[in-house]
Sequence to fold (668 residues):
Amino acid sequence: MKKYALKRILLSLFTLLVILLVLFILMQLMPGSPFNDEKLNAEQKANLYAKYGLDQPVIVQFFRYVGHMLTGDFGVSYNISKNTPISQLIQTRLPISIGIGGMAVAIGAIVGLVLGIISAIWHDTFVDTIATIISVIGVSVPSYVFALALSYSFGFRLRWFPMLFTAKQMFSSSVLPSIALSMFTMASIARFTRSEMLEVLGSEYMLLAESKGLSGPALIFRHALRNALIPIITVLAPLIVDLMTGSLVVEKIFAIPGVGSLLVTAIQSNDYNVVIALSFIYSAMYIGIMLIVDILYGIIDPRIRLAKKEGAA
Amino acid sequence: MNAATQASGAPVTETAVFRPDDFKLKNNADEIRVDTNFVSQSFWKEAVIRFRRKKSAVFGLIMILLITLIAIFGPGMNGYTYSGQNLSQKNLAPRVPGIESIGILKGDEKISTTNGTYVVNNYKLKNLSNVYYWFGSDTFGRDIWTRTWSGARVSLIIAVAAAFIDMVIGMSYGLISGYFGGRVDNVMQRILEIANGIPQLVVVTLLLLVLQPGMLTIIFALMLTQWIGMSRIARAEMLKLKEQEFVLASRTLGAGDFFIIFREVLPNIIGPVITQVMFSIPTAIFTEAFLSFVGLGIPVPQCSLGSLISEGFNSFTPHPYQIVPPIIVMSLLMLSFNLVADGLREALDPKLKEM
Fold:
């Protein structure tokens, strides 16, 4: 297990380094430099280059760049808000995005589990059909369609929740975006729970538990659900990807001042520094979560641990 | 005969001579019984039967065919073009000849103001008695029907491209990695893991910094990100099959590596491959729509379903009908591909059905 974890960590770090290299090359390729001023003579330029370390070999510049990125020094924004440090821009926005993402995961996981369990217990019945239809729609319809539908019906028509995000009503204005974002999570967890539960319910140890006289909730929650839950961790990674892309659009629709909408604005206004900083943050978060999921899975399920060991040997 | 006796060590004294009546047909047609209850069927025939039994998959297939047909012929069905603007006829609600007389889709639209809600008919107000916009017109006076179906064309082209990428890049990568194994597999899998570690969102965003937004960029972005899932499945299937006897037989007969990979193994894993292709199509359609919604997709005046939704979003509280057609078409398209993929998975994998 330790060897496996170490291998995963090294690979993650290497991936991060590859991403940083790509970002660095992109930065070098970008047209124009801050020192394109005609008033500067050659000597002044050389001084400036020396001051910012641009006269050093590229490899030194790269590692200096890696150091800057890892310590959160992303440079300044050019277009969105001139000369503001990007870390400052992100600092206020990241908690909002993470809050809404977390809420979406929570809603999706709870509702998805309930739907999945219900349709597995009463499988091939009317209830199951309904749950299946809900989850198929949830998987296939993009989150921004839900966002628009929710914003129109509950925001514009019924006025139960604010249509746009306001810092004053932090909670009530996070409800609609969270639900819209959670749909995909909910649907995939429901689908996965259903098939896993069906498999567990058909297993022999369930028959044993039943013949020992167990029934009802104890059977479902103590015996079936515990075993069915393990593989659900594997669907977490694709869900996180969807949350990231989904958040861009959902944040735009609800005018949420989060990281996703910042990225959209940055792309549209060609603010390279911000785009690159956010790309790095997204990648780092993604790689980190994937790493945790992988290692967690190895810890929880001994079969995986053994399989990995055999595979490594 | 000869060889057998020689092998046993006995000396060969005479050779056997076969006479014509040594071999006779037994004429046992009466004895042979073909089981008519469980007629043996080819794999594909059975797959079609299983597929047709699944109602939702058939529905999905019909919807895909229908949308494809309208996407091909729809834009030419009325006099409008996808980019033709007519500012005097902007923001008109849907109005369809024929069914307008029974009271729906006659061009009425509800307007909510501070004085309350009332119904107006802009066609009557502007004296456009002979003008029909089947899905309404947008803020520039363009026909939404034509634009929706031109947009659906873009989505379908992306779908075909995604399927092609999956088949060519992903499948080949997985098959080759799995077949050769050892060091080749190790290197290829490490590359895959690194590629998989970079979020698709980031790849696409960075590509757009370098390239011009447009169809080719989107397809290129898909090419860089879409192949991973497929290559994993192809590799797993290859690992299952490559030790089997028919591969050994083929190799003994002198088949080369690539003959074995693509002519011997590939036909045997076509089920999971097709299923995976179908599942990757909705993702591709979504990626395009998402990029267009963010403003990085197909450049104006061309349109895609995503860019139409993005445009409709800007005026969706006063004129909700503008955003409805592209949303419904795209949702239906993605739903249908998912349903068909589900059906195919069950149809092509009999083991799954038994579970």
